[in-house]
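Hey, I'm writing a tutorial for new members on how sequence and structure tokens pair up, and I'd like a real worked example in the thread rather than a made-up one. If someone can provide the structure for the chain below, I'll link this post from the tutorial.
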Amino acid sequence: DLSIDTCPNRESSTGDCLPTMSTHLSCCQLPQNHTEEALQERSVSSWFRGLLGNIANRKDSAEVPHYWRSRSKLVDSTPVVARQASGDLESFYPVPPGDRKILEAFMNSSSKSSDTKFRLVRVVRVENPALWDRYQDRVARSKRKRGCCSFVGRGAPLTLEALEGAHLSDGFPQRLDADVCEAYLWHATKPHVASRIIRNGFKVDQHSALGKRFGRGGYFADDAAKADTYAGAGDGIYKDCFAMLLCRVVLGRQLHTDAFRWEDAARHAGSRYDSIVAEPKGTSYREFVALDDAQIYPEFALVYERCPAPEPSNDAVLQRSLSPHVPPYWTNSMRGASFFHQKFADLEVAPCVQSLMDVTWVNAYTFERRDSSGSILQFEDPNHDMPEGATVLKVLRLEDSELWGKYKEMRAAIREARGQCLTQLARGTVQTSRPDLPLCARAGLMAEANEVYLWHGCSPHVVESILETGFPVKPGRGGTGRCEGMFGDGYYFVDSASKADEHSEDDMEGFYSGHYAMLLCRVILGANGVLEGADLHAHEKVGRGREFDSVVGYQEASDGTFREFVVRERAQIYPEYIIIYERMYSDERYR
């Protein structure tokens, strides 16, 4: 029997003797012919040896995994208590795209479902020293208390088999401890709950809402598809994105049951068991219930989507298109619907958008670039706050019959009024609309109306507003960003992704923190004017019946970097693609 003994001086939660002289004397039985001095000497010697053992056990718990990016911040001599109190070391680090693909394969290989496949949008690794120390303390305590444990029921979790082929470049997975039946397990939940967990850890108590079928505890699955049934979706542009955690869990000594429901299981387990393994009769899935907060470390936070059925190829789409009034690659072109307002994940175009973002990213910035504190970025960027690039996480395509109808009418009107329009630029070409780009070739942009693709940086909540109602009815001066525009009132766009990123913002809190938003819009430039410097009254020359349909203003002439494209009519804009992305920094940080 491995239950905690009844020594009155033992801690009820751990079974360890309190490290005091009186505790040792009362807990350890010594020969009665020893003098008081001998007893005290032996007591001190024994207690000191035990203390050294505890320190040795604590050494591993104080060390963080070798692949943590924040490892260099942790000073070995810093006491554990001091590090737990230091909130600035609690960090989240994005997993590189290559490793994300390996994790995606791991997720799908640990799923028994043949109908559901998963695509990882984003993965961050949780590097929380306080939670890690607590978890490693629990590992050491389980070893002392339980000895060597074995998996019960059907044996090792499915994830252990799936892990054999998952070796990420930065060290995942770290070696799991078989003696305490440590395993990686899935926990799916709502995004706001997942956000709270990765910051504060699991809370397993009588008031916990984590699970009830087998009593209080943290509930997990080794089958990703089973965990997915509990996943919650985000809101707005994240409505098709789901939240899941990949956690290290110390199962220790397990109470096995084949019942479908046993609400007293956790109470029955008491102090004799560390977890519950449920394998209900007649089912193929398993559930794992951890009975203590400290048994769980939420190491990876995943944003994922359920894969839709494969879309037809471009050729098939062109042949099957039922509506000549919308782009042939739109889903609604095959349905023949007259009115629609829908967003679709566009997996096919995502690599093209990534390539376009890479090509148009310039390692330079203007006075509108902010550093990590929100202040204007200092000259020469002393803290490396300028991102090196961006990684596209998800691309959504907006199909809106009303916005598209107004856009087409405006395009036809400008074409008729202006005749053949040619892009007037002081130098270079529109980088986002080169004919050799696959995205532009597919779109069939109308060169006669000077139709182009351009970037528009903004925040996720602004994106939501634009997708619902289009751009604001009345354009503001410099309507894309924090400062007034240099080229008068209008809707501002750029052909540089890094310039658009200066106006982009992320969700500062929550599970989608670190996700930035940008639009890739169709824009009708028509007859455009060229400005080599600031002109706050440029809009007076732009519009119906006026000299120009748009202006191209060169910041390059004044600060050597970018140009901006400004239109006056909202019908000249169609926000076709929503890009969700993360910034990439030289030190692989997360902000």
